[in-house]
Design goal:
By secondary structure, the chain is α/β, with parallel strands linked by helices. 61% of the residues lie in helices and 11% in strands. It contains 16 helices and 8 strands. The protein is globular and about 75 Å long. Keywords: DNA replication, DNA-directed DNA polymerase, Nucleotidyltransferase, Transferase.
């Protein structure tokens, strides 16, 4: 069964599953999701916890031996298995063996980085999906981030207008750990009750954290102001312009390939699937392909070529201004 993080609490109230698979690259949500499951298990008498870190040299037989053993006093157990990559061949075999007949006195919490659609089609993941719960966490943006901030503030008895929540979101986007810390700071400074926009401006530092894929995604989605804000953030963090250009050019080349497939008679869904563009990227690509047209994409790619020459010193100019031109050409196209 697949659940979103905000659906997990309700599912836990109805009972525990034998296995939980938690995946994602957003550490705060991932950690708090695991905390929620462990707390629910402890309330139901799962007093023992065995922690396994799967690192180079890890012996999967150690995990299987622990899962097969019976505690001396018959205590219920949490088997907390943490991977820093998808399971290898040995790990896959061990998980399949475990999932074939999970011990009745234990629940398994398996935490690992983001799983792709292909990863979720692996045999162990399909069995886990049937036998238990898979929770994927994603970086929060836009309205999802604002809603998350609102819920987080409400837990501490804080209220803010939508304008204040959007202001807070702009300052902490891409960094939920900083967001949680800033909300706690607001609670310490002002106590419970309504928080005015001016108080947020005064108390909250600009902790937004982005990577080069964020700017490419915002550009394709047509979010002009957010795209430029991310660009400024990357420039301020000292990211090399050529690295940003690589991410932007990569998406534009993929977009050109989508349009080429469509021109050859392929449907939009078929073209996106053929080029392995799934999940959240799929919708953004579809909108951008229709919004820009083939000429718009080719013009943006030509602008990228000019930025490349500027960044390499072959042509005068500021590469960050050139990147802004590219992003505006894509994001603001009508």
């Amino acid at each position: 069964m697949r659940l979103k993080p905000d659906q997990l609490a309700g599912a836990l109230e109805r009972g525990l599953a034998p296995v939980y698979v938690l995946s994602g690259d957003e550490p705060l949500q991932l950690g708090e999701t695991g905390d929620t499951i462990r707390a629910a298990a402890r309330e139901r008498g799962y007093g023992l916890r065995e922690l396994f870190h799967v690192e180079p040299g890890f012996s999967w037989s150690t995990f299987l031996e622990a899962s097969d053993s019976v505690p001396l006093f018959g205590d219920l157990r949490i088997l907390d298995l943490r991977l820093n990559a998808k399971p290898d061949k040995e790990g896959t075999a061990a998980l399949l063996r475990y999932l074939d007949q999970p011990p009745s006195d234990a629940i398994l919490i398996l935490t690992l980085p983001r799983l792709t659609r292909e990863d979720l089609n692996a045999a162990w993941a399909r069995v886990a999906d049937t036998a238990g719960v898979i929770v994927q966490v994603w970086p929060l943006q836009g309205r999802e981030l604002v809603a998350w901030l609102d819920r987080r503030m409400n837990r501490l008895g804080l209220l803010a207008d939508q304008s204040g929540l959007r202001l807070l979101a702009a300052r902490v986007e891409g960094n939920l750990l900083a967001a949680a810390q800033e909300i706690e700071k607001l609670h310490i400074l002002y106590g419970t009750g309504r928080i005015e926009d001016e108080q947020i401006v005064s108390a909250v530092c600009d902790c937004a954290r982005y990577d080069v894929f964020d700017v490419a995604a915002a550009m394709l989605e047509g979010h002009t102001s957010r795209t430029l804000r991310i660009l400024r953030g990357l420039e301020g963090e000292g990211v090399a312009p050529l690295v940003v250009l690589w991410a932007i050019s990569r998406e534009l080349r993929s977009l050109a390939a989508v349009q080429r497939e469509i021109a050859q008679g392929q449907s939009m869904d078929g073209a996106l699937a053929r080029l392995r563009i799934f999940d959240k990227r799929k919708e953004a690509f579809a909108r951008a392909a229709k919004r820009l047209g083939r000429d718009g994409v080719l013009e943006a790619i030509r602008l990228c070529t000019r930025v490349d020459r500027i960044a390499k010193g072959l042509e005068p100019g500021d590469p960050w201004l050139g990147l802004s031109d590219v992003c505006l050409r894509v994001a603001a196209s009508s």
